[in-house]
Description:
Shape: elongated
Order of helices and strands: HEEHHHHHHH
Strand content: under 5%
Distance between the termini: 44 Å
Radius of gyration: 18 Å
Oligomer: single chain
Amino acid sequence: FSEVLKNVVEYRQAPFWSPWHCGGNVMWQHPSVPLLSPVYLLVAVMPLALAVKVNIVLHYWIGLLGMHWLLTRAVRLTFLPLAVYAASIFTLSGSLALHLAAGDSDFLPAFHLPWLLYFLHLAFQTGRLRPALAAAAILAVTIYSGGVPVVPLALLAIGGLAVATAVTARDWR
Length: 173
């Protein structure tokens, strides 16, 4: 994040190149550099370290709300304590926390996965195109947010949801 801000603010140029990484390397063309991030907006009103922490908290809330929405709308889980517990199992899992503790902010878009699965479930159930386009947009935001390591997880989740839907509907189309 700081390389992008240094290029834009101090040098007044688009952040396409990072001269500080490995003797010079591409920046926005690199798959792990986030093109879309709330940090770039938040840094205008707060220090960079605080903006990154607020970004992490924001992504945790996106994950919690998305998982709660998926469980209550798609799975139809009505018992609120169980829904909150199940949503927190995904969102507060050690895997994501360990990646973030190690500085792997490219795993933050993993919190978009419940929303992706919800819209895909809605597209499978209704047969409409609009929820499928919303799921595609969420996958695109995941990629443009530097979440390329999350894409294989998303593809596994999409495949699992497709197989589960086909098995329950007894229709392989």
